[in-house]
Amino acid sequence: MIPLITQTPRLLILAASRALLTAELHKPQYFPTLLGAAMPADWPPGEYDRAAMHYFLEQLTVGGRTAAGWYNWYALRKAEGDTPRTLIGSGGFMGPPDGAGTAEIGYSIAAEWRGQGLATELVAGLVQQAAATGMVRRLVAHARADNPASQQVLLHNGFVLTGPSPDSQLRFERAVEPAAHPALSS
């Protein structure tokens, strides 16, 4: 089983569970309490919508314990000064890696938290998580051509533009080196 929590300097990145996704979809008044975090006013952000939540919940239900960590992750900004721990974004994988060790990532940051380098930090945490599994050799991500900020997030994390994808987005890829000690990942 892979670690279900990781940290970066400013973020706690927590793998979604069936309980968290169920609360987010059906009992949103309990969701912040379960996370132990404040919620942004514009939640959910970007492409992380109810359809994505349902997809992730379905995959975790069908996949059981082995699916944990291979789908949605919540990005929580650590408490600092007068700002409490706050849910600022969502990211994760579209599923376990394929037979060649390739996995796809995606991410969205709430509007009020954009422009602070948090998406870059979230993607760095996801890359770290992928390496910690020892199963991922290559990561793929997509960004819209009209979203230079998202493209920069990927470039800052070692992704290389490999061309357009069939859905008119830009495709980025990067190699993943396995972590030296996957069990020691925080």
Overall description:
The protein is an alpha+beta fold and 186 residues long. The chain has a single domain (5-178), classed as Gcn5-related N-acetyltransferase (GNAT) (Aminopeptidase), CATH 3.40.630.30. The chain has helices at 18-26, 31-35, 50-63, 118-133, 148-156; strands at residues 5-7, 11-15, 72-77, 86-93, 102-109, 138-143, 160-164, 170-175. The chain has an eight-stranded mixed β-sheet with strand order 1-2-3-4-5-6-8-7, with helices on one face. Helix 1 (18-26) packs antiparallel against helix 3. The longest helix has 16 residues, at 118-133. It is globular and about 40 Å long. Mean pLDDT is 93; it is low at 182-186.
Q: At the fourth CATH level, what is the homologous superfamily?
A: Gcn5-related N-acetyltransferase (GNAT)
Tally of DSSP helical segments: 5
Number of domains: 1
User: What is the CATH third-level topology name?
Assistant: Aminopeptidase
Total beta-strand segments = 8
The run of helices and strands is: EEHHHEEEHEHEE
Tell me the structural class: alpha+beta
* CATH architecture identity: 3-Layer(aba) Sandwich
Low-confidence residue ranges: 182-186
